[in-house]
Write a structure and sequence with these properties.
Oligomer: single chain
Radius of gyration: 43 Å
Structural class: alpha/beta
CATH architecture of the largest domain: Up-down Bundle
Distance between the termini: 46 Å
Number of helices: 21
Number of domains: 5
Strand order of the largest sheet: 6-8-9-10-7-11
Largest sheet: 6 strands, mixed
CATH class of the largest domain: Mainly Alpha
Length: 644
């Protein structure tokens, strides 16, 4: 368990004087050992305080001959001669161990007293050859003991929680750093206010929810909001991810849950945040897993701990997930996660605020209009918008500019929505012409149909996995009418019908269009009640095992109903296909003009398409380019990146 060092546990973990270290040896033993080694070399030098004058052996003989030496001492080991001159100067000289007869006679003649002695070596220096190996052995066994105890302590502490404890100083994120989401911040602020001033809520008998679940698509800022709570709250904030509870040993997850809640209770008022709670909070006793696996035991322990909270404990649990449909119902009942706060994709105003936050530290050009950028990014999450601003900055660097211009945002949006330009793809003239008519069919129908999303850009440059792209910018919608979905299907059929109208055959370029349109038609019939034959009835698809449902599930409609569903899907698709064919015939001149403009410029804007469509007008279909005799069967699918 990660402890809060600002509380009493800090005193328990601080080594006291004379206390043994984790390895078992006293901490001062190492200092004593080092002191002994140093004394071996330093003390003898300090004790040897005599000052002697070094002279040569010939100078020594001269002094003896002159009668300046009365007494000397000669070492039997190295021939060192020490003594004192008549003027009181101590000297030292080195000569042979055995003096020659001439020198001996000179010493006797001058009455010099000669004393022989054996030098005694330093006791510590004599022990040094043994002391060093012994010290190395002691250090080795000490290191081995520390390593073994560290491994044992790691095994014994495996059941402790890995939660990180934050205080009011960390992290520095606050609600001011979270752009938009005023409703979300208001609900979260109530939790913070309760923990700061619980007496205001207790005065009127209000009970704060025990658990707050943040639900929303990926990238909407759920974890960022939790970090802002940590910055705003005046209480400790314990943060942990769902995967931190899972380990290879049985019972570790439940043990870490117990340790987490025990630590929170020791802190008094606190907030526990579990990120990606769906990793441990999935439905129990369903799917392929059994009823006694490690994940379910961890969830059971969490449910029991949340029930153990008292109203006066002042502990609030927060969690974040983008899969609320797979959570266990017992986890979402009142008394556990009482409140679910939806963090949706940002609206226009919120997107503008988010873009301003990410663009605050970047150099912007005068032609950059962040309002226009926000309007052109519907459906993007906060993470997508941050990536968009960063991509614009990267494009400005590659362009060699010192500021981010409007063209950088335009290219960044194309990169995010459509993919990277594939410069290496070399298309033949026939493929370019076929792609131009395909994308022209999409763009023309998106312009003439009253409920279709407006066209932003059309290109026949290979981008991402597509040979061409028609980019539409959907308006802010929260529900779709039947007329909008039908126009959407007609636009999807426009590329395929344009190929058939001009060339008499179709290509593989409509593969993605057919996939998306079929999915829309099935939803119209089975889920949205837009079929006259089936009426206001919804027929769900077969449940998946990973969603926590039973392994063996059966569809909730008969074979006859399945046949009717297939017939209705076919009727809707064929009806919109015929509608697209008819509109393209009526606007054949405009279709030809759009294709010619694409072949000439490779990329045109939605305004260009509107102008060409207005000038072309309906025709009888007699004007057009001669179709090519063959179609390349290897043509890659043309992906229209304007899905709902």
């Amino acid at each position: 368990m990660a402890r809060d060092t600002s509380h009493d546990d800090l005193n328990d973990r601080t080594p006291q004087p004379g206390r043994r270290s984790e390895g078992g040896f006293p901490r001062w033993s190492l200092w004593i050992l080092l002191g002994l080694v140093a004394a071996t070399f330093v003390v003898p030098q300090l004790l040897d305080t005599e000052t002697r004058t070094d002279i040569t052996f010939s100078e020594f003989i001269t002094n003896v001959d002159q009668g300046a030496v009365n007494e000397i001492r000669i070492s039997n080991s190295d021939g060192e001669i020490t003594g004192t001159l008549s003027n009181g100067t101590d000297f030292v000289a080195t000569g042979p161990i055995d003096l020659i007869s001439e020198h001996q006679l000179l010493l006797e003649d001058r009455n010099v007293k000669v004393e022989r002695f054996n030098k005694t070596t330093n006791f510590f220096l004599s022990l040094l050859p043994l002391l060093l190996p012994i010290s190395l052995l002691i250090l080795f066994f000490w290191w081995m003991q520390r390593r073994a105890q560290g491994q044992m302590s790691g095994i014994m502490s495996i059941g402790r929680s890995k939660a990180k404890t934050y205080t009011t100083e960390r992290p520095g994120t606050t609600f001011a750093d979270v752009a938009g989401y005023e409703g979300v911040k208001q609900e979260i602020t109530e939790v913070v206010d309760f923990l700061k001033k619980p007496e205001q809520f207790a005065a009127i008998g209000a009970r704060i929810p025990k658990g707050v679940l943040l639900v929303g698509p990926p990238g909407t800022g759920k974890t960022l909001i939790a970090r802002a709570v940590a910055g705003e709250a005046g209480v400790p904030f314990l943060s942990v991810t769902g995967s931190d509870f899972m380990e290879m040993f049985v019972g570790v997850g439940a043990s870490r849950v117990r340790d987490l809640f025990q630590s929170a209770r020791k802190l008094g008022r606190a907030i526990i945040f579990v990120d990606e709670i769906d990793s441990i909070g999935r439905k129990r006793g369903a799917g392929l897993g059994g009823g006694h696996d490690e994940r379910e035991q961890t969830l059971n322990q969490m449910l029991a701990e949340m029930d153990g909270f008292e109203a006066t404990e002042g502990i609030v649990m927060m969690a974040a997930t983008n899969r609320p449909d797979v959570l266990d119902p017992a986890l979402l009942r009142p008394g556990r996660f009482d409140r679910q706060v939806v963090v949706p994709l940002p609206e226009f105003g919120e997107r503008l605020s988010i873009i301003k936050v990410h663009a605050a530290d970047k150099q912007m050009g005068e032609d950059v209009d962040l309002t226009t950028v926000a309007k052109g990014t519907p459906g993007m999450s906060g993470a997508d918008l941050a990536n968009l601003v960063n991509e614009a900055a990267l494009h400005a660097v590659r362009r060699g500019g010192s500021r981010i211009e409007g063209v950088d945002f335009e290219n960044a949006r194309d990169r995010v929505l459509m993919g990277q330009r594939r410069e290496s793809v070399a298309m033949s003239d026939h493929e370019k012409e076929l792609t131009a008519y395909h994308e022209g069919g999409h763009a023309l129908l998106a312009t003439v149909l009253p409920n279709a999303d407006p066209v932003h850009k059309v290109t026949i440059l290979p981008t991402g996995q597509a040979l061409g792209v028609t980019q539409q910018l959907p308006e802010e919608r929260h529900s779709y009418t039947q007329s909008y979905v039908e126009d959407r299907l007609a636009v999807l059929m426009g590329g395929r019908m344009a190929e058939e109208l001009v060339y008499g055959v179709t290509s593989t370029g409509a593969a993605n269009d057919l996939m998306v349109s079929t999915e829309f038609a099935r939803k119209m019939v089975r889920e949205w009640g837009m079929s006259v034959r089936l009426g206001p009835m919804a027929w769900g698809a077969q449940s998946q095992v990973f969603l926590g449902e039973d392994l063996m599930t059966s569809r909730d409609y008969s074979d006859e109903t399945a046949r009717v569903i297939d017939e209705e899907v076919e009727r809707i698709l064929r009806g919109q296909e015929e509608r697209a064919r008819r509109l393209l015939r009526e606007h054949r001149t405009a279709l030809n003009s759009i294709a010619e403009a694409l072949l000439e410029h490779e990329t045109i804007t939605g305004a260009d398409v509107q102008r060409i469509a207005a000038q072309g007008g309906p025709t009888d279909g007699s004007v057009g380019m001669a179709p090519s005799p063959t179609v390349d069967a290897e043509l890659l699918p043309i992906i229209q990146r304007d899905d709902i």
